[in-house]
Amino acid sequence: MTEAPTPRKRNILLLAAAGLRASLTEQLARYPEFAVAPAASAQEATRLLAEGGCDIVLAEAEIGEAFARAASQRFHGLVLLIGAPSIPDACDYIARPFRFAHLLARLRATDEREPPIVAIGDFRYRPGAFELTDATQRRLPLTEKEAEILTRLAAARGAVVTKDMLLREVWGYHPTVTTRTLETHVSRLRRKIETDPAEARLLLTEKNGYRLVFSPAR
Fold it and tell me: In the 8-state DSSP scheme, what is residue 89?
């Protein structure tokens, strides 16, 4: 397996209400390529941005839209709003409700808008998309959950993603969703991407989780 190169650490300025701020700070702390500077108010976020060293501005629309609009006028990095802006096209944004895997793909995007394409066996996949393509550009559709699972596994860059993490980040804390539900979706996804699903080589089952074998697309 050719591992994807480890990106340099990117500093995220996060302006959000207490609950979302705590949740995203905790989740992003699992990824060493990111460092999060949380801000509880637009005033604090403005001060942190002025201090420099920030690569990404991530703001919740409800409390940070005005700050994000102002930042996008003078900040050259990615400014991403969580939730649609009140003024159309005022900011780049990720719609709510969102999955953490989709947000992670956006934060990792090399061109600030499109996540990098990865090669999974004979297929090419852009994290967040609802389809795979092969060398002949034949399209293989994915369901919403299949796409979210594949996006989350690709975001882990070859590391194991536990079943608990997938259940939490793909389905949220829905009480009716079980491990069996996850296993069923993974089995269906495996049948789509594996040459021989009975002998998995790309979507591997590991202790307590799953791992995706892939490489950067050429």
Answer: T
Model pLDDT for residues 1-32, shown as the tens digit of each residue = 444 444 568 899 999 999 999 999 998 888 88
pLDDT in tens, 63-80: 999 999 888 877 878 899
pTM over 0.85: no
DSSP letter (8 states) at residue 83: S
127 cis-preceded (ω within 30 degrees of 0): no
Tokens of 70: 């102002």
Q: Are 130 and 148 in contact (CB under 8 A)?
A: no
b/e for 57-84, b at 16 or more Cβ within 10 A?
Answer: bbbbbebbbebbbebbeebebbbbbbbe
Q: Which helix (H) or strand (E) holds 28?
A: helix 18-28
Whole-angstrom distance, CA of residue 130 vs CA of residue 109: 17
Exposed, middle or buried by CB within 10 Å (0-12, 13-18, 19+), for 147? buried
Q: Backbone phi, then psi, for 52, in 5-degree steps?
A: 85, 175
Helix (H, G, I), strand (E, B) or coil at 82: strand
pLDDT in tens, 115-138: 578 899 989 998 878 889 988 888
